[in-house]
Request: fold
Amino acid sequence: MNVIKIAYARTFQFFLRIASKIVRFPIPTVKERLEDIPTLLKDEGLKCPILIVSNTVSKGKRYESLIKMLDANQIKYFSYIGVASDPTFKTIEVLAGFYKAHECDSIIAIGGGSVIDAAKAMGILVSNKYKNLARFKGVLKVKKRLPFFIAVPTTAGSGSEASVAAVVTNQETKDKFAISDGKLVPNVAILDDSLLKGLPSELVATTGMDAFTHAMESYMNHAGNKKSKEYAKKSLSLIKNHLFEFYSDRENDIARHNMLYASFYAGISFARSYVGYVHALAHAIGGVYHKPHGYLIAILLPYVLEAYGCKAYNALSEASIEMGIGSDKVSKEENASSLISWIRELNQKMGIPDSLEQMIHEKDYLPLAEHASIEANPLYPVPKEFDKNELALILKRANSKKF
Reply:
C-alpha cells in the first residue's frame, strides 16, 4: 500500500481510537444457567420475548426445559426456529416482521454466532428508523439501543454474545459485512456450557479457531488497550490449553466450560480492538462461496500472520510466550514462527486442511481481495496495511500452497 493511503488509514484509526474512549462499550451481565431466564425477564418487567432458536437447539431437552419454565412462570413467548448460517437481509426482515406482528418486547437468541447476529440485526430494524440494513454497514451507525436482549451461545467461537458486531449478508449483492456498534451488545450472556454437549468435533474445531483468531487479531491491533489485551491473553491461553481437549472429548466439562469463556473474553476484546485481514478475507470468501466462517478463518490465519512479516513479530512473540509456546531466550522472529507452526499443527490435528484446496477460482482473486480491502481499510488497525493486490497474493497462496 502506498504511503499516502497508509497515512490516511493510521490517521483514521487514531481518531477512531479517541472516539472509542468516549463511546461506551458495555460488557453483558453473565449468568451460567438457562434456568435464570424467567427471573431475568420478570426483573425487567418483560412479558413477551421472541425466542430465536437454531434448528438443532429446538430439538434438545434443554430447550424443552426452558419452554416449560416460561410456561410455569406465565411468560408469553413466540418462537422463531431455523435461522440458517450467514443470515441474509431477507431472513432478518422476516424476523423483524414476526417480532412486530406478535408485539414482542424482548429478545432471547439461543444458538451459534449466526443466530445471535441475526437477532442483533433484527433488533436494529425494530428499534431504528431506517429499515435497510445496508445503511448500518460499518461503525457507530445504530442510533437506538436494541430491546432487552439475552444471548445464549451454543458454540464456543463467535463471541457474538459479548461483541459489538453483527455479520449479515445481502443475498442480492453477495455482500457479507459487519455492523459494529456498542448498542448491539446483549444485556445478558447466558454461558451455560451444558448446551455445548454433543457438538460435532468439526464444529468445535472451526468455531474454536474463530475465537482464537478474534483474540489474536485483537491482541495484535494498534487500537488495543491494557484491558482489551488482558481479555485477549486470557482467551489465547484458555484456547491453547483447552481447545484440543474439547475437540477430543465434548463431554469434558472443564474444557467445555473454559472454551465457552475463552470465546466470551475474545468477544469483549475485539469489541474494543477490532479484527483484521483474516476476518476481512473470510467474509469476502464466505459471501461468494458459502463456506463455514470458522473453517475459512482457521485456514487463512497462518497465511495472513506470515504476510505481516516483521511488523507482527513483537505482538506474535509476546503472545507466543504468554501461551507457553515461545521463550524469552530466542528472537522475536523465532517466537512468531513457533506460534504460526503451532497453529498449523493444531489445525492438522483437528482435521482442518492446510490450504483452501483450489476452492477459489482465479478470476475471483482480485474481486474478493477488493471486497476485503474495502472492509478492512482504513477501519482495522492492523500491524501492516495491505492493498487489494497484496491481499490477492495472500489469497492465491492460501488457495494453492501445501505443507
